[in-house]
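Q: Predict the assembly, please.
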Amino acid sequence: MKPPVFQYHDPRTLREALELLRSYGGEAKVLAGGQSLVPLLNLRLVRPKALVDINRIGELDYIEEEDGWVRIGAVARQRTAERSDLVRSRVPLLAQALRWVGHPPIRNRGTVCGSLAHADPAAELGAVAAALDARFVIQNLDHQRVVGPEAFFVTYLTTCLEPDEILVEVRFPTSRPGWSWAFEEVSVRHGDYALAAVAAGVRLEDGRVVDARLAYAGMGPVPVRLQEAEAALLAASSFEGGLKAAAEEAMGRLQPDGDLHASSEFRRHLAAALTRRALRRAYAAMGGVR
Amino acid sequence: MNEPTRTVTLRVNGAPKTLTVPVRKTLADALREDLGLTGTHIGCEHGVCGACTVLLDAKPVRSCLLFAVQAEGHEVTTVEALGTPDRLHPLQQAFRECHALQCGFCTPGFLMTLVAFLEENPTPSRQEIREAIAGNLCRCTGYQHIVDAVERAAQRMRA
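A: Predicted assembly structure:
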């Protein structure tokens, strides 16, 4: 179908964009890459009075490193991030996960911040943000606030963003020495939404796992970090034992919904299998031997 | 509510174009209706089928998910720029030889996706080709012949 009638604004500065959002009092939507919003418009599932297109705001188009964080502005494309040497070297988990987001034509337009702000719980980037404890920089005309993933993701397709606010930046902590990361997913076809996906990280000292991160997409209304599974991995006396224990925690604690594509039980099965697969790959990449 | 319109200037297949369109008109519709470039096909209109894929500044994008006003100042390349009936692009030639199309509806989207793909990866494996076309739906061929055609075109373009 065709989108409903709307007013269109393409401001050149963040301030103008924030003023527009304020002036429409909640009846305007922010248009970034448009890979989620435009389908919703075309299907007439949303009917905003106006679109505030932020694509021409040059000050929001950046990927840069500062004080242990990689900062990604609201207009930075997924494909740009995927190919960025900075992202590949400093936030390798994000670079890995981006390859699973849609298809190259989608990633050429879609933005990192836009995917996060859309908050589809099956989206890869939410799991990455949860695993890395990313920071979300949120701004309106009067103030800026910075929140973590637990505060940002509220439920299906819902974040803590107010109608006059823009997610202007997301910050991912740079990977520290000793850490190794792996992203694994099962989807119906490459590029489809995840039936289940895991973002995993391990830190090794003398060949032993001393720290870990495990977060999931497709496992309920928001991305889930599973600290119980991380703890189970660390507590085990052998790596193989840790894998088993972490997978059991994932199987036991995650509560995904079932749908047309996969039952809840099958999704939990996938989560457990992907937990083992991702941890093995991260471990092997550090020269760990099973 | 009055339908807001805007005048847009862009380059299409190398030529400057100026058109006045409703702001909600997608680039796909503007290409077809305002510029007469009906090679770009419209399938699902929500970014799933890939039939409307064109190049925006040499990168493949879904033209049904982009408003024509957003193309202001940009360069758009459509399937019309690829080859002519007498002188097909190597991908078009290979599609014809390998039976990579039947009804042809999805073909322009496949071609535009693949032109950009082969530029990035001139020596793809069959698996890489399958992943490259995962965002384009074809209901006729079953894809095997499309993968064959891409392999053949890649070989010729390397030679």
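The two ends of chain A are 54 Å apart (CA to CA). The longest strand of chain A covers residues 194-205.
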